[in-house]
TrEMBL record:
Function: Assembles around the rod to form the L-ring and probably protects the motor/basal body from shearing forces during rotation.
Any coiled-coil regions, as ranges: none
Keyword match Signal: yes
Gene symbol of the encoding locus: flgI
GO-annotated cellular components: bacterial-type flagellum basal body, distal rod, P ring; outer membrane-bounded periplasmic space
Protein name in the entry: Flagellar P-ring protein
Keyword Signal among UniProt keywords: yes
Alphabetized GO MF terms: structural molecule activity
Originating organism: Ferranicluibacter rubi
Domain of life: Bacteria
Amino acid sequence: MARRLIAVVAALALSLPLNLTLGVDTAFAAARIKDVASLQSGRDNQLIGYGLVVGLQGTGDSLRSSPFTEQSLRAMLQNLGISTQGGESRSKNIAAVLVTANLPPFASPGSRIDVTVGSLGDSTSLRGGTLVMTSLSGADGQIYAVAQGSVVVTGFSAEGDAATLQQGITTAGRVPNGAIIERELPAKFKDGVNLVLQLRNPDFSTAVGMAAAINRYGRGQFGGQIAEARDSQTVVIDKPKMADLARLMADVENLVIETDVPARVVVNERTGTIVIGQDVQISPVAVSFGTLTVQVTETPTVVQPEPFSRGETAVEPNTRIDATEAGGKVAILNGSNLRTLVSGLNSIGVKPDGIISILQGIKSAGALQAELVLQ
């Protein structure tokens, strides 16, 4: 059991050792538009399908426990002109899988994409298997791609009579370039009358700055403003009459802008990782630091009866409890940057888990002027 406290009068800004990630020295960071925003019409579309993996060495579904696998096998053989009337298959070399993929924007028929497969039944491994022809559909029910190919599994497992070793996942894998696109998306890039850019990290300051940078470019190339920030995430660019959308997008996405993010502290209590943003500040606050350790020691004693007393051997409990308190140090920090705070915390030996407790306490006291994100 431990009690952690600290005394701090400081302002928070940036950087901790080991498990704390440093930020940059400036409040704004320069970045290209293509790195902070994406084209609304250029988003991915998710595809899904149901298929079979064959060629497994006895690691497939047991057909009695997974009846849908047997039904799929019979349907596939019937489509191939093979009669399956009568008899029951006991093969364990086949497995039912769910196939997923992301259809990239502006994908054209004939191009290939990667697919991911995952077992649906009680198969123990997909290693060495081959995915047979599987249609992949979008949310609208239309088939956009067909997948087939050898499944690549990174995990492995080994089993003996008395021990089992497994590393990674053996019931999921990938088929690199395993799907061929058969249908293109209905929307055409050059049919649009404007470009809609969406910030990956919504922020009004960044959106306004992006629109200003695009308008500077527009005044130089087209003699007028062409961009408007609609909200914290969306910037709309109107297409000039004589402009080519592809050329316009190529020029705009390489413009350099200054990005800004809200003050935020991200804490992962499982790994002890702390990430503190540049603009994080704390109001004056005073706390103390110390640790309390309680140690419980059990030393039971065996008591023997007297000779010829017809008594019974008994165990007499003996418990010793020691409580020690260490620390109690107080750090008074003056300054407005996080490096000053960190050097003070390190000088009194505060570990990452102690810093997490400190940050949570400061936030509860209302002195942390930032968003605290716990993961």
